[in-house]
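ok here's the first one, seq then struct tokens
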Amino acid sequence: MDKVIVATQNISERLESKKYYGWYLLSIKPNAYILAEDNLARQGFGVFSPKHNSTKKKGARFVNHLQPLFPGYLFAEVSKSSPEVKVLNYTRGVNKIISFTDRYYPLKNNLVEKLRLHCDANDVFSHEFCFKLGDRVKIEHGPFTSFFGKIISSSDYLAEILEKVPVLAIPCSLGSPEDMEEGLGGGRQGWWGSVLPAVWSYMLAARSRGLGTAWTTLHLRYANRVGEQLGIPETVTQLACIPTAYYTGDDFRPGARKPAEDVTYWNHWKKTEI
């Protein structure tokens, strides 16, 4: 009878410990990410520390570097092959297990698995995987809480609000690109090469005065109708449309793009992988 009781207790203990298998959210001590990750992995815990690319200004240029997606936190997995859950609290680099009771329970609803679907093999999170064009979204925080919206491209959004922009600057040039095909004009390349610096100067001047601008050619399919409305002669070519207005965001910031050293090559051509 004693042996049966012992066996029952062992089974009960195993069933009880199985409840604690899964992923836990850990608070990490300051500047101790690598220390915590190494010690957790060395003990046999699974480790998931999602990161994201962040752009910061360094001197006169912008550089990309990886930062924790959730600063100060990472995820650790308790399994049959790892120590018990309470060992997490005593791991070097770990501050504590995040819990709202005096007992520890793993995260629910496959949260970590869902996060991993949006990360590459190096646990780098990509916002591109979160939404796709046409997705409906509900705003959870801020002045538009509970409003619904739809994910659209920036050009589609611009087309929708173009009529509300207070100033639409249309750069024009006399003649047409074909006029430069002969002689030393450089053809179309020379044509645009003479136009772009002037437009850039306008956009930079607007920027210095707190105005936002964008280069778009959305209206060119209706260039003839626009020309009629504005009295632009047929001998003049409309080149673009530059919406100009005070911006509504918190601040200007650089767009997400690859570092210059990843897309420039010396003395030879190479196609950059997007």
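and now the second one, same deal
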Amino acid sequence: MTADVKQIICIKWGTKFGPEYPNRLRAMIARNITPPFRLICFTDDGAGLHPDIAVRPLPDFDYQAPTNTIGKWPKSRLWGDLGDITGTVLFLDLDVVIVGSLDDFFRFGDPGDTVLATNPARIKPFETLGQTSVYRMRVGTLAPLQRIFAADPQGIADEYRFEQRFVTRRAPGGVRFWPKGWVVHFRSDCVPGVPARYWREPRIPAGARIVIFAGSLNPPDAIAGRWSEDDTPRAPADHLRAAFDGRRREGLSRHLRHYIRPTGWVERLWRE
């Protein structure tokens, strides 16, 4: 693979995400990048993937998966040897929505830098916490972290909770962060505050390139106008009535906050 080919990687394991997720990711990349590029999907099931996606098996990594943790620790499989995939790669979560050009993600900084997105300050106000939904690395740079994690998976997960905190604090050579506004968080940066979210659709912030969907709210939920797949899409007035007539499934305050209108731009952009 020549150095000028932009390499994007993703990982799909288990049954949470079907083949439509990497397929839509490939299509969004193609519409927002200057070729040549290729998307490599590391997966335990390549059925149904678009023929232009390079399919690779999940990298071998013999460890006991930690329990009772909210971090996405299976991503640690990508920190070591990736077989025939070498050089600089951009990792994207399967459930992102690409809203602008990706070219600058390959120009920013030095090719050997480990570059992460950041969590919104309101989520971790006293900590600059990297976000591994969108990050760039040189293959093998994070291999020392993989070895540390493999030696004590439960201990590392208990200490750091999130794999992204572990990478932020322990990456060899440190980490850099994408310029502010390139990567935005759907719930924190796109959804209007209360009460405006009851009459205004979520928006794309100016300058955004990628929208990430951390937590239980994924692109299909944004399209439907619900906070998670466990919720029922409702018109604003009906959502308010549900707060008091026995239909809500959580506390009053959370129920009132957990509302979005159907998001048309997600439906337009998150497609093959």
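notes on #2: The CA atoms of residues 114 and 184 lie 19 Å apart. The radius of gyration is 19 Å.
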